[in-house]
Amino acid sequence: MKGKDLLSISDLSSEDIHWLISDAVDMKAQGWLSSLSGKTLAIMFEKPSLRTRVSFELAMHQLGGQTVYLSPAEVGLGQRESVPDVARVLSRYVDAIAARTFSHQTLEILASYSSVPVINALSDLEHPCQALADLLTIYEKKGELDALTLAFVGDGNNVAHSLLLAASLIGMNFRIASPAGYTVQDRILYMAQDYATDSGAEILSTEEPNLAVSGADIVYTDVWTSMGQEAEAQERHQIFASYQVNSELLSLAKDDAILMHPLPAHRGEEVAEGILDSPKSVVFDQAENRLHLQKALLAGMLGGLEIPLAGYR
Ligand code: CP
Ligand code: NVA
Q: How far lies 203's CA from each of 72, 143, 313, in Å?
């Protein structure tokens, strides 16, 4: 993983994912070790963020490194300056770039012109850091990763894409229930099906939330309108109305099922009022685990200390 980009979950192997979770478990248990002294991460965002920005900043600082945050207005990515030039300039200053872009293609151009690793901090196509942190949360709650079934209810969006790829790589069953025309992209589904032939994961794409959630270990949802799709919000609200995760739908999952959401959430839309504050909800563990997982990721990418293994696998 050292020196490589993380634009997509498909940049990782199943072994990489297990190592990252293992290191994150150790980092979380042992506090932090100052292993990235002298290293700098640029955090360059075209969209707003709470969790991703704060967790990347703290991850670097807790490992002894530094960060430089660049807001949309400051960089003018592709407007004030071309994406290739931004990549070449930043590469002269920093050791890695975490970028949140509207278009995934912007990230790919950034990575192809950058001589330092680029991390996808969310694009319209994927949110790999969220999916990896979510696997850490699932491992903590369930004590295993494969042999589980995750049911995603809602839009086949960036978060769904990364979860589908991660689940199919590691052998976790993945079901998605979305309205017609809003399921995951074919290209991602085919890639996942290919991974699943090796890992044994079962993949199901359906329009029926009940079918997806029945007997699931994990029920996952995300906003119906992602950042950048605000003009479609009203239309999506109508199209997704019967895809709300509420107590009735949740009752079809296993008794000990957990409820996940990457946040920010729109209570009363994709999740019924009160559901995210119920005992099944692990959303704040998910948010915390962004920090621990990203510390493991940054240490791996930037050549941090070897962390002694404990407690995982
Ligand atoms: N889940 C997540 O990525 O949150 P932010 O958009 O606040 O970073
Ligand atoms: N799908 C959401 C995730 C936010 C963390 C979005 O892209 O806005």
A: 37, 22, 25
> How many whole angstroms from 92 Cα to the centroid of ligand 2?
31
Say how many Å lie between the CA of residue 281 and the centre of ligand 1: 17
Query: Closest residue (by CA) to atom 6 of ligand 1?
Result: 49
Q: What is residue 79's predicted lDDT score, i.e. its pLDDT?
A: 86
21: containing domain: 9-126+288-302
pLDDT given at position 309: 46
Are residues 102 and 52 part of one domain? yes
Nearest CA among 58, 71, 48 for reference residue 288: 58
Note whether 6 and 117 are within 8 A (CB). yes
Q: Say if residue 142 is in the same domain as residue 39.
A: no
Q: Is 308 part of a structural domain of the chain? A: no
Specify whether 220 is located in the same domain as 140: yes
Closest residue to atom 6 of ligand 2, CA basis:
226
Q: Output the CA angle 224-187-153, nearest 5 degrees.
A: 30
pLDDT given for residue 78 in this prediction: 85
In a domain, 3, yes or no: no
Ligand 1 pocket test: pick from 124, 290, 294 the residue with the most ligand atoms within 8 Å of its Cβ: 290
pTM over the 0.85 mark: yes
Residue 55 maps to a domain: yes
CATH of residue 134: 3.40.50.1370
Tell me if 77 is assigned to some domain. yes
Mean pLDDT by 10 residues, the chain (313 residues): 90 96 92 83 96 98 96 84 96 98 97 98 98 98 95 98 98 98 98 98 98 98 97 98 98 98 98 96 98 95 64 49
- Nearest alpha carbon to residue 153 among 238, 223, 51: 223
Is ligand 2 within 6 A of the CB of residue 157?
yes
